[in-house]
Amino acid sequence: LLPFGREVVTLDNADDTLTLVFNILWILLCGWEIFLTHLILALVMAITIIGIPFAAQHIKLAPLALLPFGRDLR
Q1: Contacts of 46 (CB under 8 A, 6+ apart)
Q2: CB 61: neighbour CB atoms within 10 A?
Q3: Phi/psi of residue 71, each to 5°?
Q4: Distance (Å, rounded) from C-alpha 52 to C-alpha 58?
Q5: Separation CA 45–CA 51 (nearest Å)
Q6: What percent of the chain has pLDDT over 70?
Q7: What is the pLDDT, as a whole number, of residue 12?
């Protein structure tokens, strides 16, 4: 909920088979929609000077929305 000052890190168990299966299911079911939403919102927010930091956060959260299993915000 608070992405400012945090970064997306890959966890130690990111190479598990179960993580791969869950990521594939996530992409097929709803992950690509959330990913595209983050990209579109980043483009819209980058139009104004005030929205540029929020656009940067959307760009940072887009990969996490696409492949959430095996990653975390720290």
Answers
A1: 52, 55
A2: 19
A3: -130, 160
A4: 10
A5: 5
A6: 96
A7: 84
Q: What is the value of pTM for the model shown?
A: 0.84
Q: Residue 65 above 90 pLDDT?
A: yes
What is the C-alpha to C-alpha distance for residues 40 and 1, in angstroms, rounded to an integer?
19
Which of these, 33, 2, 36, 20, lies nearest to 70 by C-alpha position?
20
Q: Would you say 58 and 3 are in contact if contact means Cβ atoms under 8 Å apart?
A: no
Looking at per-residue pLDDT, the higher value among 34 and 11 belongs to 34
**Could you tell me if 11 and 65 are in contact, meaning their C-beta atoms sit under 8 angstroms apart?**
no
Residue (of 69, 66, 64) closest to 7 by Cα position: 64
